[in-house]
Design brief:
- 2 copies of one chain form a homodimer.
- By secondary structure, chain A is of the alpha+beta class.
- Chain A is globular, with a radius of gyration of 21 Å.
- In chain A, the strands form 3 sheets. A 6-stranded mixed beta sheet of chain A has the order 8-10-7-11-9-12. The first copy, chain A, has a 4-stranded mixed beta sheet with strand order 3-6-4-5.
- In chain A, helix 9 (257-263) crosses helix 10.
- Chain A contains 11 helices and 12 strands.
- The mean pLDDT of chain A is 94.
- The relative contact order of chain A is 0.15.
- The interface between A and B is large, with 76 and 77 residues.
- Strand 2 (42-44) of chain A pairs antiparallel with strand 3 (51-59) of chain B.
Chain lengths: 340, 340
């Protein structure tokens, strides 16, 4: 059965039924939700004072290809990248609004699987899919808005603009596996089954670090973001917006073991500039970093420090403090013709 | 200059500059906005307790073609359809998040004009463009999320599900001009200059009825929506969600004078099922309708009544109360193969 056969309103009925079955009435999002699917807009009554919202779109043949991603993975990832933006602020994600562009010949079963993936990650992180629209489109696109709130009554969040000279730079987890997964999928690379599964998971069903983001804010971390464009590119954003510089010790960067074993000498480049790891990148004074290391269960690695010099720039150095060079520094949706 | 030349971050810089110039610090949206463009997410601290959000996407060659719409009109309309959803609830729109899909060869000047159109309508209705993303895409699409709040501390809003038997059915303004404008543009129809301008305006730069929606809620109207799919189709939505029926007197429907003069005997069909008029459709007991007529400056026309019979259906009748038939009942994004 194609979506063109059941029509927009038939599709809305199918999806509304799935959403209704997945309500979790005792969780915050559903407790505070007053009007959801079926009306012109959603209505909610938040109990914490500071609200957060973000939007991101995934486009077929630009951000994904249906040749390599399953509909379930696509559903998971389209929500994950937005939940990660809320995690990057240290907030609580609560609601997702889904705007879905679909060719008329898309199978209804595929869209149900897509929503299944969204409901799976929504259920994992207590996020309610609370509205959206479905439109005809020559290609698939998924535009997701996630709304939530600051995790504390004071409205403390992490900002890209709050890094200070003398702050240490730290990252959660290990980097490079998402970019490695993308390369594996695009070039049909063959690796041992365990590595294949890990790379695929890293690229297609990443886990947003929501609790970790909240813990960082609670411990006093003021500057941070999630790693979506690549460590070097994203640290450059922090440098630009905070009007400071950074020294990044490439030898300290935590490279995914799977990536090391599968990509050898390219592993570091994937970790530095591959992007889409959705780990958290943050800066704070050394005493706060120590507290973070104790509080978080995931690895936390100090990879450099913020500097008053080199405003807006990241200087890559090795263990001896000597500058090193890299070819690529991140991922740009419309790559500029010249190197920046 | 193409967007592929300045890159995603170059484009974000250009647009951020435009947004900064258009801040209105004394208006509610900007007063309550704490973090906007440049961070992972926006943050705001609402002063009214009930929050409202809605999303809608416009896709090139489905909802518009760049052969007939200017970039400024496209910017206006993409925001207008979402502001109208907030108006349909009787709410106050405050923030717009814009997710923009663009081919790399789009001219930067065109995107600035698009944002100019968004800023124009945003300025008119005191709505801040407060975030978004820009992605590469084979076609232009614009996904807009509008966030606002209920216009009263009690959280009263209009619902599609709140119509009761005995309620009168009323609409603001006159209908059919947007559908007439679309037909004129698609078929290069020639009309007198004044009519041409009015039809184009109705289709491409509609005015969301925000104040009118707030007044309706304040006067006690509980059931309503905006007319986006067409009067008959949208009234059917109210019937379905309210589990009631409706009798609609087609001879009382306020048809746009311009549409009557340009489309003669087709005018009524355009008014009943053309869609995208963004007038308000609402139901209420007769005494409330009388108050609404006194309070609103725009025309308010009673076109029928809600009934306990014919649950989920709209019965079209003439002045004599005799049933009449129409071929089309609305606009469906994925038209189902059979007639519903």
């Amino acid at each position: 059965m194609k979506v063109s056969k059941i029509g927009e309103f038939g599709l809305i009925n199918v999806l509304s039924g799935m959403l209704a079955e997945n309500r979790q009435p005792r969780k915050r999002a559903w407790r505070e939700l007053l009007v959801d699917i079926g009306d012109d807009a959603m209505v909610w009554k938040p109990s914490l004072p500071h609200q957060i919202a973000t939007v991101d779109s995934l486009v077929e043949n630009i951000h994904f290809t249906l040749k390599t991603v399953t509909w379930r993975e696509l559903g998971w990832k389209s929500l994950a990248v937005n939940l990660s933006d809320i995690a990057a602020m240290g907030g609580i994600p609560l609601y997702a609004l889904i705007s879905l562009g679909l060719p008329g010949n898309t199978a209804v079963a595929d869209i149900k699987t897509l929503y299944g993936g969204m409901l799976e990650i929504g259920g994992t992180y207590n996020v309610a899919i609370s509205g959206g629209d479905t439109v005809s489109s020559p290609f698939v696109f998924i535009s997701v808005t996630v709304i939530g709130c600051a995790s504390n009554p004071e409205g403390k969040v992490m900002r890209r603009s709050a890094a200070l000279p003398g702050d240490l730079v730290a990252v959660t987890g290990a980097l490079g596996a998402s970019a490695g997964g993308l390369r594996m999928l695009l070039h049909n690379l063959e690796f041992p089954p365990k590595a294949t599964a890990a790379l695929r998971r890293a690229h297609l069903t990443p886990a947003p670090h929501i609790r970790e983001g909240q813990t960082l804010v609670a411990l006093g971390v003021k500057a941070g973001m999630d790693i979506s464009d690549g460590l070097v590119g994203d640290l450059t954003h922090i440098c630009e917006l905070s009007r400071v510089g950074a020294r990044l010790n490439v030898e300290r960067v935590p490279v995914s073991k799977t990536v090391k074993s599968c990509f050898q000498e390219e592993a570091l480049t994937l970790a530095l500039s591959g992007g889409e790891d959705y780990e958290l990148l943050f800066t704070a004074p050394p005493d706060i970093i120590d507290k973070v290391k104790t509080a978080l269960k995931c690895p936390v690695t100090v990879v450099g420090e913020m500097t008053a010099q080199n405003q807006g720039r990241v200087i890559l150095v090795n263990n001896q403090g000597k500058p090193v060079r890299l070819e690529k520094t991140g991922w740009d949706h419309f790559p500029a013709a010249e190197t920046k």
